[in-house]
Amino acid sequence: MDFAFTEEQTAIADLAAAVFGGKSGTERVTVVEAGEERIDRELWRELARAGLVGIALPAEAGGGGLGFTELCVLLEQQGRSVAPVPLWETVLAAAAIVEFGTPEQQHRYVVPAADGELFLTVGLEEFGPADPTRPATTAHRSATGTWELTGAKAVVPAAHIAARVVVSAATSSGTGLFLVDPAGAGVRAENNETTTRAIATNLDFDGAPAELLAEGDSVAWLVARVEVALAALQAGVAAGAIDRAVSYLNGRRQFGRPLSTFQAVSHQLADCYIDLEAMRVTLWQAAWLLGNGEDPGTAGLVAKWWATDGGQRVVHRAQHVHGGIGVDIDYPVHRYLLWGKQIAATLGAASADLARLGDRIARIGVPL
């Protein structure tokens, strides 16, 4: 198991850093946050032109032919810039269609998604504490043989601009993934502002028409990848927050010397470094396993827990060491705190992650 980046992965990270750095500065993000969609379409087009949107999708579907690890490399760079684009949502929805969908579905949705021409998203979360691999939303066949959904999905990211949502649902034989039009018949959508000022949608299904992608283990397949994608994004957010803190503390002076030289401040940043390193090692272990077709076991949940628990500590400390300027929303560091909180709440908070991890170990005896 080798976590060192290849030359190709390093090149992807450098290209992504250049695109995000050039197109998602503080002033630009402020403008996007004040808009109606809260999505930076200009940045999205630039990512597509650079071949980054489809980097982890197959070449025959218009992508770059690389894999899940490369997607995580890209997501880490997005987190460093807190760039408002639905990257993991679109790519993982498209990946599920590639993995389980028909050639016609791939041509209709994956090819234009890889080109940056449409957005996709995933609906896995529901109201109340629940294991996302065990959805309460149900799917059944109608009298005409088509599939219909009943139930609800909570805080579906970017559903207000998505062409389709990949939704998890319980079936008579287990669980499955389905494609749903968020603006279609039988769907009621309620948009809300999230902690990051993005738009997320609560979707209610009342006999909503749906296209089957797959039953069986498809829900667990998607949840595992979303967990690790969130860990990658959070690792970038935490690293970006630390970079902001270091830059500020090196430039700010008290009693004739930089704040960064004060022992209490140094200890705070040392704790951030320890948390970030734990986040990274668990992230890249899980990403390596998934990217190489190995069974991740509990690695994905462990990475998700570290991203949730450690990530929140990092963004809180980074905010704290900025002192009074940290609470000024015209200063950019607050966005890292908001993103860190939002990511940590996605698919369940730290306590929910631990409960799921313990339940999985108890049920199937998977070693840590």
Describe this structure in words.
This protein is α+β, with helices and mostly antiparallel strands and 368 residues long. 51% of the residues lie in helices and 18% in strands. It has helices at residues 7-23, 26-33, 41-49, 68-81, 87-100, 103-114, 218-251, 263-291, 299-320, 334-345, 350-364; strands at residues 119-123, 138-141, 147-157, 162-171, 174-180, 187-193, 199-215, 253-254, 257-258.
Provide a quick synopsis of the model.
The protein has eleven helices and nine strands. The protein has 368 residues and is α+β, with helices and mostly antiparallel strands.
Helix content: 40-55%
* Individual helix count: 11
Main sheet, how many strands, which sense, barrel?
7 strands, mixed
- Mind telling me the CATH class of the largest domain? Mainly Alpha
What is the ordering of alpha helices and beta strands?
A: HHHHHHEEEEEEEHEEHHHH
Rounded average pLDDT: 93
What's the CATH H-level homologous superfamily of the largest domain? Butyryl-CoA Dehydrogenase, subunit A, domain 3
Distance between the termini: 16 Å
Shape: globular
The counted number of beta strands is 9
> Uncertain runs with pLDDT below 50, 5 residues or more?
none
How large is the share of residues in beta strands?
A: 15-25%
CATH topology of the largest domain: Butyryl-CoA Dehydrogenase, subunit A, domain 3
> Pairing-aware structural class of the strands and helices?
alpha+beta
- How is the quaternary structure best described? single chain
> What's the alpha carbon Rg, rounded to whole Å?
20 Å
Tally of discrete structural domains = 3
CATH structural architecture of the largest domain:
Up-down Bundle
